[in-house]
Amino acid sequence: MFYRPEDGHGLPHNPFNAIVTPRPIGWIATRGADGQDNLAPYSFFNAVAYVPPQVMFASTAAKEDRGDTKDSVANIRETGVFCVNIVSFDMKDMMNRTSGPWGRDVDEFADAGIEKATCETIACSRVAQAPASLECKLTEIVKLPGAANFAVFGEVTGIHMRDDCMTDGMFDVTRFNPLTRLGYKDYSVIRDVFSLTRPGES
Predict the structure, then answer these.
(1) Tally of CB atoms within 10 A around 40
(2) Is 24 exposed, middle or buried (0-12, 13-18, 19+ CB in 10 A)?
(3) Is residue 52 part of a domain?
(4) 162 is in which domain, residue-wise?
């Protein structure tokens, strides 16, 4: 089939998210100017540059108590920092709990029973048991077409990796099985890994 998004797809559910899969999940920790911590998952997330290392995530909805956006973007506007936590398969239920439409006064760490740790380079909390966490300094917030669409870019200023996720000096995703987002209500998990050598590489 073919459809133009502006005309609608005529299907029971929007297939767009099911086409662009799997997507890594950025579990974004922020802190507002008032000191309130927030934690929320975003599946429009990825790394975008090596030197300096940079990442992005996009927020596509708004809350009544935050005007044109959600807590994460609102907090980053105020403080200029955020921390991306990587989600392992065994943290899926806690991650899902933090995706709820909670008020700005709710600390999702506490609500979901998640242990906090202190970041080293920014004033923000991080998920203590995450396989890895990326401390980020805001570089740019880009307003995208659509009422509440914002892309947030940040430079990574500190990287945490759990020692038990290392194998022979390499960060080993098979040690923690990253959770990935599919379409609809679906998720998947990375358990199988294979390697390919690019042409010209040894």
Answers:
(1) 22
(2) buried
(3) yes
(4) 24-189
pLDDT band at 202 (very low <50, low <70, confident <90, very high): confident
Does the pTM surpass 0.70? The reply is yes
Q: Where residue 61 sits, what CATH number does that domain have?
A: 2.30.110.10
d(C-alpha 86, C-alpha 121), whole Å: 18
The band of 64, judged by pLDDT with boundaries at 50, 70 and 90, is: confident
Considering the domain boundaries, does residue 2 fall inside one? no
- From CA 27, how far away is CA 95, in angstroms rounded? 8
Q: How many residues does the chain have?
A: 202
Cβ(39)–Cβ(108) below 8 Å: yes
Would 177 be classed as within a structural domain?
yes
H helices present in the chain, as ranges: 16-19, 71-79, 92-97, 108-111
- Is residue 70, in this structure, part of any structural domain at all? yes
Report phi then psi at 37, rounded to 5.
Answer: -85, 150
- Count of domains in the chain? 1
